[in-house]
């Protein structure tokens, strides 16, 4: 999996890394148990500070997407606990996206089609 950073984005770099790893786990491009790059290797690869990558990995660990240990580094968890609900912050983000789409004149069918496409991925 290749991490791409948008330096012009308002989204902090650590969140961009986190979001791309979560999407990679969801769409299967990162397999359960797969080894992630070391903090140092990923930081060098994308040209950022190691503390930024470390912050991403700590967040992913806290959220239950990856596991880390000193011997094996960071790996995608083999089982991810299914909450069965959407977090309040994700609901707020979805509401913002839907609101912007509605104001832009995007038909409801198109939004639902995108949700179906992304959910099926």
General description of the model:
The protein has 121 residues and is mostly helical. It has 2 domains: 13-76, Winged helix-like DNA-binding domain superfamily/Winged helix DNA-binding domain (Arc Repressor Mutant, subunit A, Orthogonal Bundle); 88-120, no CATH class. The chain is 55% helix and 7% strand. It has helices at 13-27, 39-46, 50-63, 88-103, 108-120, and strands spanning 66-69, 73-76. A two-stranded antiparallel sheet has the order 1-2. Strand 1 and strand 2 form a beta hairpin. The radius of gyration is 16 Å and the shape is globular.
Compact overview of the structure:
The protein is mainly alpha-helical and 121 residues long. The protein contains 5 helices and 2 strands.
Largest sheet: 2 strands, antiparallel
How much is the radius of gyration in Å?
16 Å
Specify the CATH class of the largest domain: Mainly Alpha
Number of strands: 2
Helix content: 40-55%
- Distance from N terminus to C terminus (CA atoms, Å) equals 16 Å
Strand order of the largest sheet: 1-2
Alpha plus pi helix count: 5
> What fraction strand?
5-15%
What is the CATH architecture assignment of the largest domain?
Orthogonal Bundle
> Topology as H/E string?
HHHEEHH
CATH topology of the largest domain: Arc Repressor Mutant, subunit A
Q: What would the keywords be for this entry?
A:
2 strands; mainly alpha; two-stranded antiparallel ribbon; 2 domains; globular; Arc Repressor Mutant, subunit A; 121 residues
